[in-house]
Each structure stands twice: as C-alpha cells, then as structure tokens.
Write a structure and sequence with these properties.
Number of domains: 1
Radius of gyration: 12 Å
Length: about 80
C-alpha cells in the first residue's frame, strides 16, 4: 500500500502498476470511465488516470485485479456492493 500524500507515482510508475489489471475505472468529478482492455488502452487510460500534477490521481484503490482511481460517490456506492 502506498500513501499518495507521501509518495506519488508518475505515469511510468502508474503504468507499471496498472498494466496487468483486469479492469481500471477512473473517476473525474461526476463522470467515470471503465477500461476493460487495459493493455490496448494505455494512452487513454493514463490520460485519464494522471492528474494535472503529472501524478496518479488519488485516491487509488485495488480490489483483486481491478483498480478504482479518483473519487465519485455514486461509483463508490456501486463498487462496494
């Protein structure tokens, strides 16, 4: 586990972590996008997952072989069911 407040991940480090995921869901405000073909969608996934600082958006959660990046209350409510 990594605390993003103390250790940030740039795009290369984020890709090393995400590339083997079964699926990644990225939330930005009220919208979210799910990537199920992670390896084929590298550029678009990183474009969404990397914030304006050039680091992986927070919070980032891993559950099994899936990741949820960013914050969206509706997404979280559905995800934890």
């Amino acid at each position: 586990m990594t605390d993003a407040r103390k250790e940030s991940l740039n795009a290369d480090q984020a890709w090393a972590m995400l590339k083997s995921a079964k699926a990644v869901t990225v939330a930005k405000g009220k919208k979210f996008q799910r990537f199920e073909q992670v390896a084929k969608q590298k550029e678009e996934l990183l474009k969404q997952a990397i914030g304006p600082t050039g680091n992986l958006r927070a919070p980032t959660y891993r559950a099994g072989d899936e990741y949820v990046i960013g914050f969206n209350p509706e997404l979280y409510a559905d995800w934890v069911k």
